[in-house]
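Allow me, if you will, to draw on your knowledge of protein folds for a short while. I have a record of one protein: its chain in single-letter code and its fold written as discrete structure tokens. I remain grateful for any guidance, and I place the record below:
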Amino acid sequence: MRLLRRLPTRHYTSKVASGNEKPRINELGIQYLSESLHKKVFPRTSVNDYQKKRDPARLSLAKKHLKHNGLLDRKTNIEEPLQFPHFPSLVGANIEEHFHKLGTSCSQPYLSMAERFLATAHLPQKPSKWVFESGWTRYTPGADPEAVPYPSESELVFDVEVMYHRSPFAVICTAVSSKAWYGWVSPLLTNYAIDPGYDDWEHLIPFDCLKNPKLLVGYNVSYDRARVRDEYNIKQSQAFYLDGMALHVATSGISSQQRPMWHKHNKAKKTTEEESELFVQSELDQELSDDPWLNKGSPNSLASVAKFHCGIDVDKSDREFFETTDPQDIIDNFDMLMDYCAKDVDATFKITAELFPRFRKKIPHPVSFAALRHLGTLVLPTTKKWDTYVSTAEDCYMHNRQQVSEILRERANSLVSFVEAKEPLPDVSDDPWLRQLDWTLKEQRFKKNGEPVAKQAFLTGYPEWYRDLFRNKEKEMNISVRTRITPLLLKLKWEGYPLLWTDSAGWCFKVPDETKAVKRMTAKNYTLAKLSEEDHEALLDELRDNGYYQLFKVPHPEGPSKRCTSVLSKNYLRYFENGVLSSEYEYAQDILRLNSEASYWMGNRNRILDQFVVYSDTGGSKNMFFDTKVKSREHPDMGIILPKLCSMGTITRRATENTWLTASNSKSNRIGSELKAMIEAPKGYAFVGADVDSEELWIASLVGDSMFKIHGGTALGWMTLEGDKNEGTDLHSKTAEILGISRNDAKVFNYGRIYGAGVKFATTLLKQFNSELTDAAALKVAQDLYARTKGQTGKSKFLDRPLYHGGTESVMFNALEAIAYQEDPRTPVLGAAITDALSKKNLNKNIYMTSRINWAIQSSGVDYLHLLLISMEYLIARYQVDARLILTVHDEIRYMVKEDQKYKLALLLQVSNLWTRAMFCEQMGLKEVPQSCAFFSEVDIDHVLRKEVTMDCVTPSHPDSIPPGEKFTIRQLLEKCDNGKILDEGRKKRGYKPLDYQYQPQVPVLRALQDDSEGLALAKLRIQNSIDKAEWRREVNQFIKLQKNEQLDEIERTFEKTSIQPKPRNRIKNDFDVSSDGDEALRHELAASAIEGYDDNFGDFSMPGPPVKTERQNGFRYNNYRPQKFDVRTKTWSAKVPRTQSNIKEPSSPIKDKRQVLGFKPFAKQRYEARRSFSTTTKTARSATDRRRGSAWFDWREVWRRPNQQSAGDAAMIVKVSIFRSVRIG
């Protein structure tokens, strides 16, 4: 089915070429880099190489594929070839060597330090007694403890402890090197021990790593780093924070899909260990057989990881002491708590020492290691506006909550006003909402004499539903939008029908049991509620009130299987807006609006309040943000936040952090959503950054294009490079058209599908966007989407696995699955291996294909980020730019740079992006980069952190607009930088020189996927191009024929290589003794031939070999060749003795029957008589050709004359064995 109507060939030029160079355009209309830039990134590939038609067959297939999808000859954006004078040259002969050298250089000296330190067999003995003095104390074995300003060694493992209910600053710290232990005590503790009134908590830990390279190892080390004094500086420190938890996640982490099963298995395992239940043990054994990965990974806690990798039991019970708010508790247990901290250090060292060699083996590229240093030293500068932001947002939020509460309190109090007025209980039997409340009044208690009890129950005389609102110690009304009775107080309706609460089905609405009304609700895909027996009994009268009613469920965003428990959440705002959800009162809309405003702060409030902000100490005693006190005094309001980021927090090696990496953009109706804009560059500095355009989508499409060996070869690749939303030819527009939704909503479907999500995911998502869709309709639309994108699935026993065909993304998904199905899957560019828990060898029953596809894409995206970071480190040093990385968010990168160097840094970002794109293209076998994706579409230059430089960041809590920043395309940036002259090095010597070493070329990972011959690879592509099942079958048949022919050719080539041997001498033939035991001869023959690989089920041998000495056995002579399959002289099959049914048995080896391999059907006829067997083979046996080849045949006439002396079956088998041992087959 065509996705787009084919249009005539059209190319347009957005900018008329002013130079003489013509655009370099491939056969599919994709424009490549200019000649000068191409020479810079692919110096060994000719600028005209793309014009050589090396793969006309693949090109033809690509054109057919694009034509089917309506993309062939569609217009593409042809621009003037971009000229970039002074573009830096590569460090090496090609882009691969360039990055390998950069990675190797940037990883030093830290890689050598880690290899040396983590190879330490034993750490020094831990101190038995710790010195209670502020600052660092060194404990050297055999020497007295001594006070030191900081640890003197360059390689350390450390851990800090914090009284987290009182302050985020550390109170104690322990560290260990290969030579000594260290202990650090906060001045708070030592001063508090003398003066309990001492309350200065703000003390950071010095490590002397601001200018001296140090390797600091920790577990979840970003938490510990936030307490290191050297990190609070405008300059990046020289520390490399190596995270043991990150190493575990990258090598042995488990996916979110696997986690529930792992916890279930681990719980059963503990039960077995405690109770020794044999039944449970057998279940565990079965689980391990079905899912071997359960013993190959673990969750990420220190205790779990230490137990899993090192067999260490880490006791974390002493951690409870740090929950205290009284420093005296720490002082009283000082030695014990220092020991506790030191035990964590010891466990961290053992874990890291165990994991680091495995990590280097799994993720060997030096770029992957070197990039971790930058991800471990992120910094977010702010000002004291941060405190204003937090207090303003909190005040705005509390005022918002107060407004909502006042409305609800007034409503609740109005319903019980009859108590104060001493009026009778109102009749609510006709009110479908209020009668659901418990109107039982709390009776007054009396003494036996009839006098009221002095101490009555709280709110005596009030109904129970009202009294339930005061179930707290303060005896204050506690009512909010989350309170269960709130929808009843507001008299909410769904589709005009009153809401009804049920425990088993959540919020429902009852519809009169009339055919038209019920059909109307059913047509809108509402689900009938299935009530529990208790609910059914309790609601029986309600459903028979003034007639009969049907109960329908209020739809849940995640589908009909879930129950709705809160109709006032933000997910239901759109139902209020379109009138599906309504109320008897106008103020219900106000409540929902107020609730929507507060939703962001409500969900992120705790994480934001917990941010650890350190403000500048202008005196320099506690921290020093700048090199001099003078500069520090120029920034008295400056603060720094160190994000608690794990450099490899998921199995895809993506970084994780719970606030800044998930922060949304500011919205005018969301309190506190201006969070990111509170990160502000200090005076004299600016933020420079960019988002990688469609990073992971482009990577996925590039994998598909590499199969056609041309950019834009797949429909997905073409749409990614040249799709235009105005023309409706981009991927998101296309998906929106198929699904009937907005282009923005379509992005969720596209990325979900690319990450491996299936039809079920798309169906559920469709229901969220349109709850009126029936299950069947949603499923049909989702299936149509996947048929047109992912394609149909076809299977054949001649193919390694099922293949997708006929869709815009079929080729890409087949390639991704080929990566995932490898024994040792690795990312295509930097060769990072998948975690053990998802390796093919450790999967059996559950293959977790979605997680593995997701890994292939997202982990490649991480490779992209790592390449960007390392190229930027090199360029910043080479061009002496005062800049550092402050934040990365997957496909987004932001640097802080001196104001007068911001344009230079922006240009260097563009250089880095082109290098990275070129590396990806080359590793995929495409030594060209399309101009449309070579550079960032725009580079942002700003003084605050925000998604777009034009956002004003006005919110309910931030009414003041923030001035806009700047953004530049590559052409605008070149113009701003005097056509790139800003990078002119002239004769100056720059400050960075990569290490000089002998580079060893690497084998591209994707080459392993292309082990088929060119013919078979093309045949597979034709299969994947098949539009329907009929074409699929035709192409599969062609593939089978080609495969057989290639096998025959290979057999013949193998024979020719081994057939150069001396001509055997003719031997005198001896008569065969037909009086001998035929059965014994057969058994002896089969036993002898088994040594040479013979299997009597096959009637031949699988491998050729040289001739050996002629022997005499059982009365006949034969030439003891290792039997072959094909006679290359006569081009005929020589083995013509039919197999008898009595001789067929199961193979004793996994080698296939040659007749099956080569397409011959096994013999299925009844047993042949010896006479027929002899007459069939005599001519072949007596042929001149065989005599010339030295075959020694016995005289068949002797067997013929005395047939009664042996059975026909024995004689036939002797003939068969003799012939197959004599005939040489290719």
User: Anything to note?
Assistant: The CA atoms of residues 105 and 995 lie 5 Å apart. The longest strand covers residues 155-162.
